[in-house]
Design a protein that fits this description.
194 residues, eleven-stranded antiparallel beta sheet, 5 helices
Amino acid sequence: MAPRLERLLGVVLLAWAAAAPAAPSWDVERLLAGFAQTREARASFVERKTVRVLERPLVSSGELRFAAPDRLEKRTLRPRPELLVLDGDRLTLERGERRLQLDLRSYPEVAAFVQSIRGTLAGDREALERAYQLALEGDAASWALTLVPRTPAMSDLVARVRIAGRHAEISVVEIVHANGDRSLMSVQRLPGAR
């Protein structure tokens, strides 16, 4: 190839490469945008709670359901049936014949705590940032979002929440309480929901 043609080709290739849009970087905005597209999700879970006063972890399992924008159900099947439902500002807990309902507006620390999961699933960055400082590590194929409470009242309950997964799917939720207790939930998405 003639030197002049080679230079011209080099200039054209360089200009094309410079003009090509760079792949968008992986950040909190892109992660939450992926979650915001999901209207419903179902998953199985296994949760291990480590409590300082107990010799062994408490292990439970069941199913999670999310319906955008603000309904989250945690149906525990083992070791005993229990249903926890977050619907808007209402939290309902059913265990056997007992039923407890709370208006989360009266319990702002509890509301902020449950918002860590529900806000992530809804892709609601504004709601998450009202209660937490966000830090994202990794890339789309393997990410971890750490939420650290913004207020002292919340920090008295929870040291941090760490949610990990791939793309717009959660695989692990770890909650470290201020007193050192912790909960580690493994999550596996079930087919059928979008």
